[in-house]
Amino acid sequence: MTVADLANALSFEILSLPDPDREITGGYTGDLLSWVMGRAKSGDAWVTIMTNVNVVAVATLADVACVIIAENSEVGADIIKTASDKQINVLRSSLSSYEVCKALASNLEN
């Protein structure tokens, strides 16, 4: 499933979508950036509530397919611009991290 397909299927808000055809191959959830950096895999959809610019740096290093910001956490314009500049897909949802993970797993299994 591509990032664009996921955003469409789950009605996630698109904040940055420079690579809509990026394939999602798994998922990872976490808010401790150093932990995510060492454990998220390339191609994962990373679910977090964190919204500082370091999220973009970690997403770049981990080569995740996208970052999904849960619980409608506020995302500043500077983060969205940095994500676009660094080719990082960023989506947002009003769902909790748990609910996003359930929906993600369900859609990746199909």
What this model shows, in words?
There is one protein chain. By secondary structure, the protein is α/β, with parallel strands linked by helices. Helices cover 42% and strands 18% of the residues. It is built from five helices and five strands. A five-stranded mixed beta sheet has the order 1-5-4-3-2, sandwiched between helices. Strand 3, helix 3 (54-62) and strand 4 form a beta-alpha-beta unit. Helix 2 runs parallel beside helix 3 (54-62). It starts with a helix and ends with a helix. The model has no long low-confidence stretch (mean pLDDT 97).
List the helices and strands and how they pair.
Layout: H1 3-10, E1 13-16, E2 26-29, H2 33-39, E3 44-48, H3 54-62, E4 66-69, H4 77-85, E5 90-92, H5 97-109
Parallel strand pairs: 2-3, 3-4, 4-5
Antiparallel strand pairs: 1-5
Kindly state the percentage of residues in helix: 40-55%
The low-confidence parts are: none
Sheet with the most strands? Answer: 5 strands, mixed
Question: What percent strand?
Answer: 15-25%
Which structural class matches the secondary elements? alpha/beta
Rg estimate, integer Å: 12 Å
Summarize model confidence as the mean pLDDT: 97
Q: How many helical elements? A: 5
Q: Helix-strand pattern, N to C?
A: HEEHEHEHEH
Write down the oligomeric state.
Answer: single chain
Strand adjacency order, main sheet: 1-5-4-3-2
Number of E-type strands? 5
N-C termini distance: 9 Å
The rough form would be described as globular
What does this entry show, briefly?
By secondary structure, the protein is an alpha/beta fold. The chain contains five helices and five strands.
